[in-house]
Structures are given as C-alpha cells and as structure tokens.
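Backbone-to-sequence.
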C-alpha cells in the first residue's frame, strides 16, 4: 500500500520507476550493419517539410553506437525499469524471417543483458511506428496479411529475447498510428482516406495484437512467465459545459473514440464501443453507403480478442474540454463520426509541442475511469512527459514542477482511488527525434548536444530530481515552489 505523512508520500513497494524511448527516435544507424529501411526512413528522406527543417532520424542520438552512454544515464537515474522498442527492420530487414540480421540480434542482446546485469528490468515494445518499408510495399497495416507477418516477427522476438524479457508491449499507440498515418496523413504512410482507412488499419492492429498475445500464451508463457499488453494513448476529457447533457455525452464519446476503440475489444468484450458502432453506422448510411465504414469482428474474432492483455499500458500527456458539435464535412471523416469539438482552458499551461496542455489532475481522473470501466486492471503508465523547445534550459525547474504535480496525482489515484498503478515511465530518457517536430522539441531527462559529433548526454535538473524520487520510492519534502507533495 502507498502511505503518506506530511511532505512524504511513498509509493507501493516494488513500484516500477522507468523511462522510455523508441528505436527510430534514438538509435540512428539507419542503414548500417544490415538494417533494412523503415517507413520512417522513407518518409523523412522525402523532405518537403514533412519534418521540422527536413530533419531525419538517420543519426538521432546514435544509440546504436552509443548504448553504453545511454546505460550510464539509466544507472545515474537509478531506474528499476527501462522501456525501449525493437526496430523490426533492424532484426528482419524485409520484415520476414526469411533473413535474420544477426548484428541486430547482437545489439538488442547486449542492451537486454546490460540492463539485467545492472538490475534494470527491460520493458520491450515490438512495434513503435517504424514498419519495415518492404511490408508497407506489400500493403502494410491496410492488408490483413500484416496480422500473420506481425505474429511471425513477435514469435521470433519471444524465442530470441523472451528468456530475459518479462514485460512485452505489442503495438505502441494504435490510435496515433492509425489516425495520423491514415486519416490526417501527416505521418507515414501519408494516407488520407478519411473515415475509412484508419478503421481498417486499427482493425488489423487489434487482430495482430490479439494473435501475438495468444502466441505468447500458448507457446511461451509457461516457460518464460512474462506478461504481454498493448500501449494505449489517451487524454482525459472534461465536458466543456458540465451542465450540458450533450457535452457530457460528447466527452464520453470522445474517450470511446480514442481509448475505448482499442480498450473495449481487448479488456471488455472483444468488440468496439456501442456508441462508436452506432455513430459510424448512422453516418455511413446518411452518406449513401450500404454498410458501415467500421469493419465488424466475427464472433470467433471477438472471442479471440477479448482478454488479450495481462496489464493496462497507458500513455497520458494532456486533457481536453469537449463539446458536442456535428461536423460540417459532407463526406466521411473521423471527426464527423465523433461529433465532438475539443478545446483547452486558458488557465492550463502549455509546454511543447503546441498540443501539450499541462493538466496533472487529468491523469488521476483517467486512471480512475480505467479502473471503473475496465475491471480494475493493473496499470503501467508507459509514457508521460513534458517537452521543451530547443534550446532548452538544463535548469528545467518549471518542467520538474509539472512532473512532480503529475506524480502527486498518480499517488492520489493509488492511495485514495485504489487504482492498481504498478509503474511510471517518463518520456523520455533522452532528447530525441520527436517525429514531425524533429529535434525542435526536447522531452529528455538528459540533454543531447546535437551540435557535438560525440552527442554527449547531460542531465537536466528534472533527471536529478527524478533520481531522488526513485531512490526514495516517492515524493519527499516540498518542491521548488514551496508546495508540499
């Protein structure tokens, strides 16, 4: 149990304190030692201002060559857990097991072995946005064939690393991957088939996740004793007008279209939320379509999908105020299906990127919502953080204050709301390639000097403060502004 005394809030014994990264964002080495190209290599090399200043992840933090420097950062923090992702294309250059890149295997073996020898538990993500280009060329996530490809890749990873990895994550943020890649078209593969492609992609991602969970359960769990889940992104949603029935319904619908889209099938009944199904069915009909744009799961698929997570993996960054608003779009669109409008409160501070309104209490409300709606699962907060614009101050006092406020809300969720939160992972260990924002936004606990070819890592104040939290397994003493924990 968590316990609190004045200015001393201690988390439960065995709480996981982590930091997170992703392969494309830190590794570099994009075309060396046998690695195949990924969709992010292709996308960033196109230029055309797809990414800030046409920057790429070709070198990034060069963690492929500088892993030992990353390990020093991990040890300096005293992390109990470290979350990282495997580059599918580094292990299997064409996305299939027809050719296994041994140098990629060697790299990840070293990472995992070094972590374990330093008493740090690896949490490994199989897929963090970087699909091998060879698979994209064959239809990628829009093709149902991807389910089999992903399952074979996952089984290869379980066989190769599973004796030492006990926490697995299948797919990172399917909501972001499907919406920004296939609806808005601002991430690879730049598809803008509005109101159609994102639902098909998400459908295949859910089935791929479930297949992999069953493969682990059937073939590896008995021997390896690990846990498998899927990483779900969600903000919290407050009704814009708390007295409006329409706004209350809109805020719930907003959460169902973001979180429930994936959490309901996996954690509840194997199927999409009822509100989502009825809205898209009705909108499809009004657009003259004979069937819903939202694909349907068969009864066998529902049984296969239901219950395919051993814990709830949550990425939380921000909160929105949500109101009811019918879309003015004539054709199909995700926003039109939702019939919601989101906004922020002028009192909420905004960090980088521009969308990151800082709302620490939102995470507590979301954790309580997950507990109540999804049968009180064990929860790992697999990402949470605050970006700074480049150049960023090493004395990031304000940012640490936001971290501290957020951890306080997580503590309240555990101690007062009785939510089973088992771990917290800061995003990110290092400043890194922040997708379309390139190197202009810095989320790291450690600063990376991109002007120096050695890419030295230097701790921010927030890293030093986070290390104290980890050492104490909690928040002790007032923060820099004199506000008690």
């Amino acid at each position: 149990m968590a316990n609190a005394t004045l200015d001393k809030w201690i988390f439960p014994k065995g709480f996981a304190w982590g930091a997170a990264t992703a392969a494309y964002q830190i590794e570099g080495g994009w075309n060396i030692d046998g690695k195949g190209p990924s969709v992010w290599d292709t996308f960033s090399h196109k230029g055309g201002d797809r990414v800030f200043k046409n920057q790429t992840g070709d070198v990034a933090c060069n963690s492929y060559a500088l892993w030992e420097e990353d390990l020093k950062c991990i040890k300096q923090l005293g992390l109990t857990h470290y979350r990282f992702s495997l580059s599918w294309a580094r292990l299997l250059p064409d996305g299939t097991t027809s050719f296994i890149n041994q140098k990629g295997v060697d790299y990840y073996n070293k990472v995992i072995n070094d972590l374990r020898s330093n008493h740090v538990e690896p949490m490994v993500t199989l897929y963090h946005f970087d699909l091998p280009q060879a698979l994209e060329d064959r239809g990628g996530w829009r093709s149902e064939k991807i389910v089999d490809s992903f399952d074979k890749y996952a089984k290869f990873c379980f066989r190769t690393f599973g004796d030492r990895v006990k926490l697995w994550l299948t797919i990172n943020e399917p909501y972001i991957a499907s919406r920004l890649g296939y609806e808005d078209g601002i991430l690879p593969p730049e598809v803008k088939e509005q109101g159609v492609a994102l639902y098909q992609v998400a459908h295949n991602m859910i089935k791929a996740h479930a297949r992999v969970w069953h493969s682990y359960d059937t073939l590896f769990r008995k021997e390896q004793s690990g846990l498998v889940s899927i990483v779900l992104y969600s903000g919290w949603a407050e009704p814009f007008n708390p007295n409006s029935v329409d706004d209350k319904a809109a805020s719930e619908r907003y959460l169902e279209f973001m979180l429930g889209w994936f959490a309901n099938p996996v954690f509840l009944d194997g199927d999409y939320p009822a509100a989502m199904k009825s809205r898209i069915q009705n909108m499809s009909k009004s657009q003259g379509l004979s069937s819903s744009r939202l694909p349907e799961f068969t009864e066998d698929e529902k049984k296969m999908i239901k219950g395919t997570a051993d814990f709830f993996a949550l990425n939380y960054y921000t909160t929105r105020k949500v109101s009811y608003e019918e879309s003015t779009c004539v054709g199909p669109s995700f926003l039109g299906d939702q019939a919601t409008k989101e906004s922020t409160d002028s009192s909420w501070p905004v960090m980088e990127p521009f969308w990151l309104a800082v709302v620490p209490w939102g995470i507590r409300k979301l954790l309580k919502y997950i507990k109540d709606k999804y049968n009180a699962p064990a929860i790992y907060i697999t990402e949470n953080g605050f970006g700074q614009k480049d150049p960023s101050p090493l004395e990031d006092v304000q940012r640490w204050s936001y971290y501290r406020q957020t951890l306080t809300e997580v503590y309240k969720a555990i101690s007062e709301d009785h939510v089973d939160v088992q771990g917290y992972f800061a995003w990110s260990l290092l400043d890194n390639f922040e997708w379309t924002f390139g190197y202009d936004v810095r989320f790291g606990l450690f600063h990376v000097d991109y002007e120096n070819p050695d890419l030295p890592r230097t701790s921010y104040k927030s890293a030093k403060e986070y290390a104290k939290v980890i050492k104490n397994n909690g928040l002790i003493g007032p923060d820099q502004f004199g506000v008690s924990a």
